[in-house]
Automatic annotation (TrEMBL):
Signal peptide: none
Residue ranges of every copy of the BTB domain listed in the record: 27-95
Protein name according to UniProt: Podospora anserina S mat+ genomic DNA chromosome 6, supercontig 2
Pfam family, one: BTB_2
Protein species of origin: Podospora anserina (strain S / ATCC MYA-4624 / DSM 980 / FGSC 10383) (Pleurage anserina)
GO BP: protein homooligomerization
Gene3D superfamilies: Potassium Channel Kv1.1, Chain A (3.30.710.10)
Organism phylogeny: Eukaryota, Fungi, Dikarya, Ascomycota, Pezizomycotina
Length: 230
């Protein structure tokens, strides 16, 4: 391979000599990436990457190591996502419901995409299109409760699988008048007398009525933004 031939960059089309047919595109190759071994076919590596297209032409087998692998000077974690894209055209979405997007890893993958000459992946990361793969919104429902909800109360409402982190929030309190037994006005205990009746006009008790809102976070995955064919 002529070491003076430049690698195409800046999203330019590869010169004609880079597009020559490879004798066996389905041949498997082992890549040694920072001590981690990856296996892929020549076709997977060369379809979207200018650098691999250049590297795997001519007498490329002369650069094999003793274990018949090709050394690639790259970060293994970032390269794992590079290889996944080369194989299936799926952009890397690194998202955690609690921590959000992993911007550090996105930056590492972007650097590798530039190095390996992968224009679509580079554009996707530069434009931060991973932000469009996940949408988040607040959902809530509310109902009146007659009693105070104890600390640590767990909601029993059934939400969709896309709703996470639900919690109860007190919205407001209403006070209503409730008649009580005139015989036991002090301790508010149930009256044992069968003939007892409620004195509606004279004795009433204040009862607080609580309005609680159950609030959750809805997260949706938009698949089309994660594929270069979407």
């Amino acid at each position: 391979m002529d070491s003076n031939v430049p690698v195409p960059v800046d999203h330019q089309l590869a010169p004609p000599q880079y597009n020559e047919l490879i004798s066996n595109p389905l041949e498997k190759i082992t890549l040694d990436v920072g001590g981690h071994k990856f296996t892929a076919t020549i076709n997977s590596l060369t379809t979207k990457s200018f650098l691999f297209k250049l590297l795997l032409q001519g007498d490329w087998k002369s650069s094999l190591q003793e274990d018949q692998s090709i050394f690639i000077d790259s970060d293994p974690e970032a390269f794992r996502h590079i290889l996944q894209y080369l194989r299936r055209g799926v952009f890397p979405l690194i998202y955690d419901q609690k921590k959000g997007h992993n911007y550090k890893l996105y930056a590492d993958i972007l650097a590798e995409a530039k190095h390996f000459g992968i224009p679509k992946l580079e554009c996707w990361l530069n434009d931060q299109l991973y932000l469009r793969c996940i949408t988040s919104s607040t959902v809530w429902s509310s109902a009146y409760k007659n009693d105070r909800i104890p600390t640590g109360f767990q909601t029993t409402s059934i939400w969709g699988s896309d709703v996470t982190s639900t919690q109860l929030v007190q919205q407001d309190v209403n006070t209503v008048k409730t008649p009580i037994c005139p015989h036991l006005a002090e301790d508010r205990s149930p009256c044992p007398k069968r003939s007892c009746y409620l004195s509606l006009g004279t004795m009433q008790d204040n009862v607080e009525k609580y309005r609680w809102a159950e609030v959750g976070r809805s997260i949706r995955f938009i698949q089309g933004w994660c594929s270069d064919s979407g």
